[in-house]
Amino acid sequence: MVAVGTWNPGLSAGVVEAMNAIADELGEEPASLNDFKENTLHPEYVPAEQLFVAMDGQAVVGYCDGWLGMYGQQRGTLAIGVLPSWRCKGIGSALLARSCEYFSRKCGIVQARVPPGAHLLDRFLRTRAFVDQSATMLLRCEVTPCSCETPPGVRLVPWHTFGDKAAFRQLHNTVFADVPNWRPITEEAMGQYTNTFWFQGGELNFVIRGQLPIAWLWMSFDADESVGYIESLGVIAGERRRGLGSFLLGLAQRLAAQHACRYLELSVEVANARALGIYRRTGFTLQREYRWLQGVPHAVLEAIRREER
Question: How far apart are CA 283 and CA 215, in angstroms?
């Protein structure tokens, strides 16, 4: 009999094996057991995430991982998977129910990424009160040596010198205000996010004109995959078309090279045509496109209860 419970460190190898079996089915990159352990055993994992597993005896046959990101208490992200021979047996619903019960106390919305070809996952979520949210492209380019001189009239300031969370939150929300599906970052969420280990392990730089921040670049680095990832980048409307975007992309190339990365990657919403055009013109090409579905935890739970009647 399959039982659904909370993850513990002893299940790490089984969870990664299940994740990789599903990743292989969808043509995605496999997960690293070392990276999984590093993330899930970190002291900050528990308040940030909740991972539920489905067990047949000692074997992991399914999982639902959920975490709160930059949207703080507003939105949780779910990654759910069930091994092929265990599908259509209620395991996915049981995992999703446990996760939505947890996140119903944390946020008002949950979202899930649907990779290309994951038709069963798409149908599974839609029949449980999930609806379309957005589509995202993963773009990549090779890291190449380039000059990246700071434009005249501005200066580059790293986060450890700048350190103004309120100003960063205001800048972030101002830049993304006109992007479809954007939800403003709360003060609480920004405070939580800038204290996390994955934030502090990256590099965040601001472009300052006078005393005001007008643009930023935040990157993380994966040494195992030799990838520098642009987590977020933005320029306020009044400073666009002045070369700051190109400067920040050049800076990203330089930082990636300093971390011995071969590739530079970023994600951008398909609806964000302005940013998409800039990235394509600077050499980024499409690696993969994902769709995102979202649901309200209480509505998802009600849909699952109706299914069980």
Answer: 21
Q: Work out the burial of residue 184: count CB atoms within 10 Å of its CB; fewer than 13 is exposed, 13-18 middle, 19 or more buried.
A: middle
Cα 29 to Cα 292: distance, rounded to the nearest angstrom = 19
- pLDDT over 80 at 45, yes or no: no
- Return the number of other C-beta atoms located less than 10 Å from residue 202's C-beta: 16
**Do residues 233 and 176 make contact, with C-beta atoms less than 8 angstroms apart?**
no
CA-based nearest residue to 244, from 206, 204, 280, 218: 206
Task: List, for residues 59-109, the tens digit of each pLDDT value.
Answer: 999 999 988 765 444 678 899 999 999 999 999 999 999 999 998 888 788
* pLDDT one-digit tens code per residue, 124-144: 999 999 999 889 999 999 998
pTM of the model: 0.80
Distances in Å between the Cα of 292 and the Cα atoms of 8, 80, 131 are 28, 13, 9
Taking the C-alpha atoms of residue 98 and residue 75, their distance in angstroms, rounded to an integer, is 16
Residue 259 and residue 173: Cα distance in Å, rounded? 29
Contact 51, 6 (CB under 8 A): yes
Contacts of 306 (CB under 8 A, 6+ apart): none
Q: Which domains, and CATH codes, for the chain?
A: 2-135+292-308 (3.40.630.30), 144-261 (3.40.630.30)
